[in-house]
Design brief:
about 250 residues; 2 domains; two-stranded antiparallel sheet; 9 helices; about 45% helix; about 5% strand; elongated
Amino acid sequence: TSFYFSEPDKEEKNHPENPLDYLYDIDKIPSNLPGKLNIQLIQSHGEFNEVKTIIRKIKSQNIPLDEVSIFYTVQEPYSQYLYQLSRQYSFNITFGNGISIKNTSPAKLLFALIDWIRDNYSIAKLYFLLTGGNFEFKNQRSNPDMPTPQRVASLLRNSPIGRKRNRYIEGIGLVIKQLEGEIEQVSENRQERYRKKIKDFFWTKEFITQIFHELPQENFDYTISPKQIARGLINIVTNYSKIDEENNFDEDA
């Protein structure tokens, strides 16, 4: 892919003609046009490398960011790549047409929830949902005994569940029963770890019950509406999405 890079050009009153106005019609540039058309043609492989090269050029030449404008022929994937790089390298950027809401933590959690439901509530999808960095238990700091999302994900992954929502509570119950039967057979030093694990499983069971309460299941006697599902998803996202305080996009979402 080829693109061009031009040195910054100061705006002047009345916006006189600029050599860049003739970028796609260079043969018709007036001979008396002031200014020099200073353009570099650069070749790069793939849109992501294009964007990285542009950022590298700007930084290497110490061009102030408020004097830089980046234009692209189509918004995606360029705006997405620019957003990702701005987050990775911590530089400020403004998008004329905004960015995709999918970049926010609440939106990522929402789509992870939908993927989990579509995959028949598989443990694999729930594990990704809990450990993907967009999920948190809001009162974790005030309750240090509460298991972390990573801990809950690990407990569930090692439970006989696999997938299907009706296997969650049953599977957790089987593990608790097994642990309660084994605790008397282990040494006193290990019994405390068993008690902690049993406690975490009970907490996880209550957590899963709350999640499924927000996502009612349709059956022969009960029909749910899209509005009910949407309300449940919104409640889960509101209660569990991890908000980056330095990212205004998360709060707006």
